[in-house]
Amino acid sequence: MGSDSGLEVGPAINTNKQGDLEGNFELKDLTGSHNGSRCSSSTFDPEFEEAHSDEEEKSPSFLRSRRASASTLQSSMLYTPDEEKSVIRKFDRRLVLFVALLYMLSFLDRSNIGNARIAGLSEDLHLSSLQYEWLLRAFYITYILFEWMTLLWKVFPPHIYLSVCVASWGLIASMQSVAFSFISLFILRAALGIGEAAFVGIPFFMSFFYQSDELAFRTGLFISAAPLATSFASSLAWVITKIGNHVPIADWRLLFLVEGFPSVFVAVFVFLYIPDNPETARYLTRREQKVAKLRLRKETAGREAGKGGLKWSEIRETLIDPKSFLTAAMFFCSNVAFSSLPVFLPTIIKEMGYSALTSQALSAPPYLAAFFTVLSTAYYSDRYRTRSAFVIFHAFLASFGYAMMAIAGSVEASAKWRYIGVYPAAMGFFSVVTIVITWTINNQDSDSKKATGVAMLNYIGQLGPLVGVHLYPDSDQPYYVKGMAICACFMATVAVLALALRWILDIKNRRMAAEDSKADGEDEGLVVQNGTDRGRRQFMFML
User: Which GO CC terms are listed, alphabetically (predicted)?
Assistant: First the structure.
């Protein structure tokens, strides 16, 4: 790398007794004088060197890699691939799986009202179909109004902020078990929306620990907790309904209590366990903490992920960015289907002619299929470093599933055909939601922009459930053809929007590459004193 690029790294790397990584690096022009010594070949990552020597001329990001910041260059040589893999594995096991558990609890608490309805909620509280829709709407109204709390991930320490959120929604969800009227339950549902509003910032929080081409799979692990929670909720509801026949408490009250209170208990572990950034992860050694920080410099341009406050200029820039509105529009369309089917599916299956207990049990398998589909989709999206192709495919898959249910209902086909249609619908919209969230984060180049992008995504996208809760009125029983057809159209629209965004981002990438090619010769032989600005020039939009 020395003679080929005309750059030298100095001084040499120091490793202290504890194995900490130290060193103060600057890039020097080898054609001039130099005071520092070269790094020995043992400090270089062989895979890094081989990849660059063999493929850099063919890579579309070659021009940007040549303009990499000093911090980026030093990061590639301060740790081995095995050390990096060890850090990633620890974050996967200790962080991602834990926040996936939290999301499972939150999704369980927001969507179990569908199971409570067929367990006797409507009868005991004398709820009409319209009142039930307002209970669903109450959650999403406050959920949307308080999406700005995503920005608070950059204001308060995450372990404190998240533990308060988890404890609050767990307590409120449990209190639904003592609701005595429509008004009392309406207030609790609205409060639950506030408690869960900040949790949508979790994918942004995970960007403090993962690179952009690692984020989809981890977001997939996180989002896949939703279908897992839905299938678990159906199975648990079936068990609780059976137990409720032998205890002096209504089935739906027992359901809210059993599924809500565990979040209060888990909040304690959130406070003790969740790190604020890579350097505060207690399960990493001191060396691993530095490796975790250094490996992110390629994308943070020397800024430390998860640290620092909000930058209002970047917030304003994101608020008028067209691509922020395109991803938000995709999220809106996806959420029409994503939010409505889980809360109505038990009722829909019951209207197919099955008993309440059987409909609870039959609600689980489609979401188990969605769970595995989300994981595989996210894995391959990261592997091939593309988002649009997977969004388009799964949007059409979900559209096909809804169309199948609509057509089967319109011709009054056998219930099994409508039930089969649930599978592609669930697998499709859960996968789309996962990739759209990740795509939003990938295409912002700073923490402030990412936080604002996620907030915009949810402010606009979460309006979708307000539409979704109207799609399955009692008057459309037993086939709900109109609701299924509308969801099919919305999911097809997602595919069209994803294609449009890919086209726009491709144009932007080509334009930036052309600008860098033009300016590249002007920077030859210059000493890089501060890599921040150059580091940001590495940024390319993910298609």
Answer: membrane
